[in-house]
Design a protein that fits this description.
Elements (H helix, E strand, L loop, with lengths): L1 H18 L3 E5 L5 H7 L8 E6 L3 H8 L14 H15 L3 E8 L13 E8 L2 E8 L5 H28 L3
Parallel strand pairs: 1-2, 1-3
Antiparallel strand pairs: 3-4, 4-5
Length: about 170
């Protein structure tokens, strides 16, 4: 699985190193695979501030430090929730970029009703916060964990590249 994540993580790392920027990660249903993928890159300490797995309310409280007011009306496995987590992990770790994933790996639907195979991913950076929903089409837990991490790293690369293009264009 890490062999599949390493090439896209290397691309993200190269962009971040080139720009002298950093990233922090809030893994959810990926169980730490997004962060592990980034750590496959030699010299990851140059761009990776760290992160953790948000898999319980207590874990979320400890890792992200969000108040109940900030979470009012939130549902997990939504783009809105992923955006709040991406911003919080970025701020908490003092990184330039934050990436968060909240999903339902399966085999059953998430306790809050999201179907197995759905992952909401967000990337927060300087003056932007974007999100997407990924649907794997399977309820295979292990397959989903890897697919969610792959989708998240690819979304990070796409966002970094788009942000660079906008900066170069003076947007």
């Amino acid at each position: 699985m890490l062999n599949d994540l390493a090439p896209v993580a290397a691309r993200a790392g190269a962009i971040l190193v080139e720009r002298r920027q950093t990233v922090a990660v809030a893994d959810g249903a990926t169980g730490g695979l997004i962060l592990a993928g980034l750590l496959t890159v030699p010299g990851a300490t140059r761009f990776c501030r760290g992160g953790g797995v948000v898999y319980s309310l207590r874990g979320r409280d400890v890792l992200l430090g969000l108040s109940r007011d900030e979470l009012a009306g939130m549902e997990s496995v939504t783009e809105r929730y992923a955006r709040v987590q991406a911003e919080a992990i970025r701020d908490r770790f003092g990184a330039d970029w934050g990436i968060a994933e909240s999903g339902a790996a399966g085999p059953d639907q998430h306790p809050r009703g999201a179907p197995a195979g759905r992952s909401c991913i967000a990337v927060s950076g300087p003056s932007l916060c974007v999100s997407m929903t990924f649907e794997s089409g399977t309820n295979d837990r292990i397959v989903n964990m890897g697919a969610f991490a792959q989708a998240a790293l690819a979304f990070l690369v796409d966002t970094l590249e788009s942000a660079g293009e906008a900066t170069a264009a003076g947007v």
